[in-house]
Structure formats: structure tokens, C-alpha cells
Amino acid sequence: MPELPEVEALAAFLRENAVGRVVARADLAAVQAIKTFDPPLSALAGLEVTGAARHGKFLDLDVSGLHLVVHLARAGWLHWRTGLPAVPPKPGKGPLALRVHLAPSDSDPPAPGFDLTEQGTRKGLALHVVRSPSEVPGIARLGPDALEVDADTFARLLAGRSGQLKGALTDQTLLAGIGNAYSDEILHAARLSPFKMADKLTDDEVLRLHDAVRATLTDALQRQVGQQAATLKGEKRSGLQVHARTGLPCPVCGDTVREVSFADTSLQYCPTCQTGGKPLADRRMSKLLR
Fold first, then answer.
1. Max CA pair span of the chain
2. How many alpha carbons lie under 13 Å from residue 90 in its C-beta half-sphere?
3. Contact 257, 249 (CB under 8 A)
4. Number of H helices, E strands in the chain
5. How far apart are CA 71 and CA 280, in angstroms?
6. CA gap 4, 236 in Å, rounded
7. Digit-coded pLDDT (tens) for 213-265
8. Structure pTM?
9. Domains of the chain as residue ranges with CATH
10. 32-66 tens-digit pLDDT
11. Which among 30, 34, 67, 64 is positioned nearest to 49, based on CA atoms?
């Protein structure tokens, strides 16, 4: 799932490559992806792209005051293209959700643009055309940005949250921008169990966790901003210490990275670094190390 660093890097890529260009047309290929009808998607045609921004894990393309807001969900991505096909795509065929054609400039006659795609059968990618990003319900509910929250505010947020740390870090209404992968990385860096209760942390643990949030996300941003859209996924994978590394040695201590599986997701952790050497039970209600 694209998280804060990847979405910020995509916004930076669009600021460099799309801002200043005019939208020639937008072809919708996945009808279920569009969540708004006023303004219509067709209203973007003929307008200039004037900015690109991020709200949590939402990507926001400013098109002369209208906003194309995208949530890439679990398996969505943006692909920059040149020489896009003139024939509109057939709805419901393949992973394509939206194709945005941009008018060519004098310096690059092949018309550029981008595709928004989503792999797999479980579709969650969402498109909104709005006059203000705050009209998107998911944005209106966002908590403070994970990179902007200070240590005192962070401590207050956790103190008021009952539940496990993994769930707290990924709750977008509490803290915006962190998903499954970076929450694993942050908890590993902070040396904390994903099942520890958020409102039971000591002052030292809260400080370690806040430092880990900033360091993990900042490092990922520094590696990814400036990359081409096509290389961002690989750059993310290359920096992971525990997430998606089940069975491999922890790069910090050498212990084997373990996994806890749920119905539709999983988490990874290092027992030596995070749980005192004890493996967590492979179920959500584990009693270990709360």
C-alpha cells in the first residue's frame, strides 16, 4: 500500500512533470472507482494542472481550482506514460482505473499523461473530483500528519487511545500517513511490540516511538523524493528492515523475522529487538507483552 513517503514522492514527481500542462481529457476505465459526480470528471478537460499535494495517504492534483483526489488503496499505483493511445480504454478491462491525457508541449511532441491502476480482484482505489480536498470524507477525518505532529501532541494522542500500538499507528483519524509497512518499520526501530497497549507506554517509550516515526518516514522520504514513479516501489522495498521479510535475519540483531497473520493482512517483527525474544501468538488477541 502506498503510504506517506510514496504518496509524497508521487506528488513531487507530478509537480515536476505535470504542473503547467493542460489536461486534454480523462478516460475512466473503472466506473466503481469514481466516488463523486459534481463536478464531473469531464470538467477537468481544458484546465491547467497548477499543483500537486498530499493529505495523509491521499494524492491531490490541483487542476485550476478543481481537485482530482486519489486514494491508491492497497494495490493502486500511478504510471507516467508518453504517447498514450488515442482510443479510450474499454471499461472493466484489466487493472486500469483512470487514464489522464495531458496536452503536449513544444519541447516534447508525444503527448504525456498517466495511468492510475489497481492490481488484484479486491478493488479499493478511489477517485474524487471536488472543489476542495476537505469535501473528501477520508481527508476530513484525518488526524495530524505523522511528520508534523510534535512529541507532546503525539504523547496526548496515544494516551487517549485504548488498543494496540499497531492499530494506533495505522489509524488515519489518529495519525495520518502511516500504513502497514511503515508501522512495522517504526515499531522495530522503537524496539516495541506491535501488541503493546498504546495508552500504557512509559515516557521513554513514547519518546522512542515518536523519534522512530520521524526517523523512519524522513529516511524513506529522502530516498524516494526525486525518484521516477516507476522506481518508487523498488526503493521502498530496499529500505525495509522487517516488513515483508518473514524468515529472513533481522539486519539489527540477526534473529529470524517473524509474522502474525490476520484475515486480510499480516505484520512482521523481530522477537529479539521487540518482544524480549518471545514469539507473539499468531492471532489478534495475543496476551504477550501488552
1. 64
2. 2
3. yes
4. 8, 10
5. 32
6. 11
7. 999 999 999 988 888 887 887 888 888 999 999 999 999 999 999 999 987 88
8. 0.92
9. 4-140 (3.20.190.10), 151-274 (1.10.8.50)
10. 999 999 999 999 999 999 999 999 999 999 999 99
11. 64
